[in-house]
Design a protein that fits this description.
Blueprint lengths: L6 H11 L2 E2 L3 H17 L5 E6 L1 H8 L12 H11 L14 H13 L1 E6 L7 E6 L3 E6 L5 E6 L2 E5 L17 H10 L6 H20 L6 H9 L3 H17 L6 E2 L5 H17 L4 H22 L7 H16 L4 H15 L11 H20 L15 H15 L1 H12 L4
Parallel strand pairs: 2-3
Antiparallel strand pairs: 1-8, 2-4, 4-5, 5-6, 6-7
Length: 422
């Protein structure tokens, strides 16, 4: 038995980071905040004022909000939460919307004043919703983290905003070796229900993405062009889940590190590889622990939202898990991750939208190539670009790149996408 002193901490990370969401998490967070506000107000407002950080704008602008009849944008996300949101459902807040409510959403948007403005805030994930100048709800740091509530000028709730991912000591216990030890030794009954839900939900949305017309149909394009070869299926099935999700599919997913696309990318290629190769189911579950936790470990350093595409982290995580399924240990997993992020760390995040599926395919491809390089006795070496000696140092470098180095890039992306489009 290996060192399991951090077992409870890893289990807590999984519970915190692998949660069910229906729809892209940024618009769903807006819907959640709006639902909370309406519950306090006790009725539908006539006036809605929404202040949002640049990254919220970026990630809401181009994605279809589920259960709205194909609507996009901050207004649609807020109004569906006002009319149909059930806040107790958390990131499934708008999973139950009737046809009558969908018609009411369109009418409300047409008839009522909804003002959306850019928020002056240092936090990348931050927004404040004010209803009828009476109720204020603010969410920051993470998608369900309410930090302030007011009613008729009285502060009902307030807490300090602490961006954990910017703290170098946050989850400092996590390491690639620790993740591998945990995945190998944990009693699977402690994580089985969570992982089985991930397999079920994320496979279902992938299959829907391949079955029907969603977004740019990247998954179908890959299969039609390159066929059923294993690596291509791993990429295509992951991309197909994003095809559906970014275009308003109403199926839920199990997200990872705040993102459904990351949850799909970290899981679906691994599930598909195990299916094709008839790998024993419990081995798949342990592999999914590696991909999910490796993704979280990288994202801890980068932050929830960034100009750095989160699919890169998850694609590397998927490659690590496939290395594990092929019998690899720490060396194979560490080299796969280093090689993968060396290839794709330049992919930007320019918001949630159909092209995310193509970025997922590229990121999974990088994970698979990173593994193939190691299998062929090849690697990227310390001193070559951002590659440093040791996998943890590479993860630190990528975190600094995404969290600090790309701040100005993020501002320029937001400027190009959104200026004047609030």
């Amino acid at each position: 038995m290996k060192n399991m002193k951090n077992e409870e901490k890893y289990l807590q990370v999984l519970e915190e980071e692998m949660i069910v969401a229906m729809g892209c998490t940024e618009p769903i967070a807006l819907a959640f905040g709006a639902a909370k506000g309406r519950e306090l107000l006790g009725k539908l407002p006539r006036k809605v004022y929404v202040e949002v950080s640049g990254n919220i704008l970026k990630n809401v602008k181009g994605v279809v909000v589920p259960n709205t009849g194909g609507l996009r944008g901050v207004g649609a996300a807020v109004v569906v939460g006002l009319i149909a949101g059930i806040s107790d459902k958390n990131l499934e807040v708008i999973s139950v919307v009737s046809d009558e409510q969908k018609a009411e959403i369109a009418a409300f948007l047409a008839e009522n004043e909804i003002e959306v403005v850019s928020m002056d805030t240092p936090n990348v994930l931050d927004f404040r919703i004010t209803l009828d100048d009476r109720v204020v709800v603010r969410i920051a740091d993470s998608h369900l983290n309410i930090v302030h509530i007011e009613m008729d000028g009285e502060v009902l709730f307030d807490k300090e905003i602490t961006v954990k991912a910017a703290d170098e000591n946050y989850r400092e216990f996590m390491s690639i070796q620790g993740i591998i030890d945990f995945a190998n030794d944990v009693d699977l009954d402690k994580v089985r229900d969570l992982l089985e839900k991930q397999i079920s939900y994320n496979t279902a949305i992938s299959e829907e993405g391949l079955r029907n017309d969603w977004g740019a149909n990247i998954g179908s394009v890959l299969l039609n062009t390159y066929g059923d070869e294993t690596n291509n299926r791993c990429k295509a099935c992951a991309a197909a889940g994003s095809d559906a999700r970014m275009s308003g599919c109403e199926l839920p997913v199990v997200i990872v590190a705040g993102s459904g696309n990351q949850g799909i990318t970290a899981s679906v290629p691994v599930i598909e590889f195990a299916r094709i190769n008839d790998i024993e189911h419990d081995k798949l579950l342990r592999a999914l622990l590696i991909s999910n936790l490796t993704t979280v470990h990288q994202k801890n350093k980068i932050g929830r939202l960034s100009a750095y595409c989160g699919a890169v982290s998850a694609g590397a995580g998927a490659g690590c898990s496939i290395a594990y399924l092929k019998g690899g240990g720490r060396d194979e997993i560490a080299h796969t991750l280093v090689n993968a992020v060396a290839i794709t760390s330049g992919i930007i995040c320019d918001g949630a939208k159909p092209s995310c599926a193509a970025k997922i395919a590229a990121s999974v491809d990088a994970g698979l190539l990173g593994l193939a390089m190691y299998e062929n006795h090849q690697q990227f070496r310390s001193g070559e670009g951002i590659v440093a000696k040791g996998v943890e140092n590479v993860i630190d470098n990528v975190g600094e790149l995404g969290r600090i180095g790309m701040r100005e890039t993020d501002k320029e992306i937001i400027h190009l996408m959104i200026e004047g489009a609030c």
